[in-house]
Input
Amino acid sequence: MRSFAALTWALACCLPLAETKAVFAHFTVGNTKLFGLGDWQNEIQLAQSAGIDAFALNMAQGDTTNDVALPLAFSAAASLGFQLLFSFDYAGSGPWDKSVIISMINEYGAESTYGKRGQKPLVSTFEGPSNAGDWQEIKAATDCFFIPNWSSVGARLAVKLGGGVADGLFSWDAWPKGPANMTTYPDASCNGPRGILQLAGDDSTSTLNLEKKRKDKRLWQLASILILAGALVWVRC
Ligand SMILES: *[C@@H]1O[C@H](CO)[C@@H](O)[C@H](O)[C@H]1NC(C)=O
Ligand SMILES: *[C@@H]1O[C@H](CO)[C@@H](O)[C@H](O)[C@H]1NC(C)=O
Output
């Protein structure tokens, strides 16, 4: 298994790519303690060769690896024309301090290397629904576009949390688990009218599927609308 692609997700309409959709790989920063610049560059090149556009950097709060990794990761990404964005992990070692999040987004979010939706830095989470209220202040201070993964509470509740603070919801169920066809079951809690953004998640095998799809733009565009419908993100569904 390629280490960078333990989890992948594809996102329609977020990064400024003209014809194709952007494909992100969920990347666990906690595993990079021993990484130097060359290791980051190597992971990024592997990702690029698989048609991946960005890493969503999963980070646990208080992990000192983050402080070492971010300057290296952004430097490597800048040298290779790659993008990065933050996914704050609230499940790994507890909730993030909102002031730390604000300073991190304000430090990196304006860089050209940081993944954006329009002008807004795109930010996600791994869980953290109990801290939804923090994001009113974080969004006000950073102007980020916020697509948390609050899967544990279900979409209908998640979209209302923190006074409806989420700009979209991230689901983890876009890809089949093994050799099976997708069903609409994972979408059931998201049965809203506004399927504007779509995300997809899977293990490394999807990387190959994604690569194949990118080779056929039409199929990929269709895929982004139909096949990836297993996981949906709404803008206020
Ligand atoms: C989303 O949250 C679920 C737990 O509810 C977790 O299993 C999944 O890995 C998360 N995905 C991402 C990309 O954070
Ligand atoms: C998936 O669906 C297709 C079309 O209905 C079918 O031919 C195929 O056998 C299914 N695959 C699995 C693993 O169920």
Notes: Residues 1-18, 192-237 have pLDDT under 50 and may be disordered.
